Amino acid sequence: MSSLALKPGMLDGIRVVDLTSVVFGPYCTQILADLGAEVIKVESPGVGDPFRWSAPAPATPSMAPGFMALNRGKRSIALDLKTEADRTVMHDLLAQADLFVVNVRGKALERLGLDYESVRAIRPDIVYLHCVGFGQDGPYADLQAYDDVIQAATGTASLLPRVDGNPRPRYLPSLIADKVAGLHAAYAALAALLHRERTGEGQRVEVPMFEAFASFMLLEHLGGQTFDPPVGPVGYPRQIDPMRQPFPTADGWISIVIYTHDAWDRAFALLGDPAFIAQGKYNVPGGRGRHQDELYAHLAALTPGFTTAELLEKCHAAQLPAQPARDLGAVIDDPHLNAVGFFRRREHPSEGTYVEQAAPVRFGASGRRDLAMPPQLDGDGAAIRAELAARRENR
């Protein structure tokens, strides 16, 4: 037995039928699989989840890096839901499921007979989690949604222009809306499953990406519009300050966060210029906030006198949060992440050696476990069909 297969997962015994693709839904079901749920990924024959093809893979073209990262611990079955035979298989899966996660739009679900009322007729207490682009009672209900359009619609693409003065709207280079919505979907699923555990009642749960990401971004950036009438502009000033960026060092860049009044004193002391922060205008109530740009600019003039390693040592000794501004490609070598086992290398039966990222949350009552490798398209189809046939015979 693997040393990581110590205890059942927190969701051991929970069965999930996953009819989602790309990132939003699969990120939700990946979290559930990490927590111990049995997740059966239903894919279309031939192509499967489009994210399978999102980047080059070393052996199998349909096993792209992003797909590998989002689909460990799941089983795959390919079903053509336009055929009666495969719809019957789908109904058999749903009859055994605790949770159905789907990101197909509502009208298509009705045509397939997979809308909530139809699924509830198969399993009355099922939790039906619908991952949608927009809330289904609003004017955008039937529109398609991808990360880019959600970033645009929520004003996120206007943040970088506020920082650097370039007026062109730009996306944050991450599937951040998909992933944030996936996190919302995961906690929503857990809450609905807990409700069912307490009451026996299933329900339909709607998780709209637009609303989820608007909530996430506007938490701080609604700014002065929080009040009616507004008391100031939108945007959290500290986050969109052009000067609040990594500081140059003699050999690279460093992030130093100076948040409290006394932290400014410590920062200028360790940089060798305590007299600068001692000036009167910085030592009246609110003075450091009003003149924050000046403080950041002077810090940036001082930090090149030190190497990144020297500044890290000084900042940590002075209890100032600091980390090197690494290149994305260097994170895999981070000593802390490797010490805690965040990255590990595994041998996939068809893809060879790959790097798996551990679930970031640890539970004292449930140790880390080896999850199954990310599946080939329909890699578990025959086994799942056989299991369903056996269950039918035993009824």
Structural class from helices and strands?
alpha/beta
Helical segment tally?
A: 17
| Overall number of structural domains | 2
Helix content: 25-40%
Notes on the protein architecture:
The protein folds into two domains: 15-217 and 359-394, 3-Layer(aba) Sandwich (Rossmann fold), CATH 3.40.50.10540; 247-324, formyl-coa transferase, domain 3 (2-Layer Sandwich), CATH 3.30.1540.10. It is 39% helix and 13% strand. The protein is built from 17 helices and eleven strands. It has helices spanning 24-34, 65-70, 84-95, 106-112, 116-122, 147-153, 159-164, 176-199, 209-221, 237-240, 261-270, 274-277, 287-290, 292-302, 308-317, 335-339, 381-394; strands at residues 15-19, 38-43, 74-78, 99-102, 127-132, 203-208, 247-248, 253-256, 322-324, 343-348, 352-357. α8 crosses α9. The two termini are 33 Å apart.
Briefly characterize the structure:
The chain is built from 17 helices and 11 strands. The chain has 395 residues and is of the alpha/beta class. Strand 1, helix 1 and strand 2 form a beta-alpha-beta unit.
Name the features:
395 residues; alpha/beta; Rossmann fold; formyl-coa transferase, domain 3; six-stranded parallel β-sheet; 11 strands; elongated
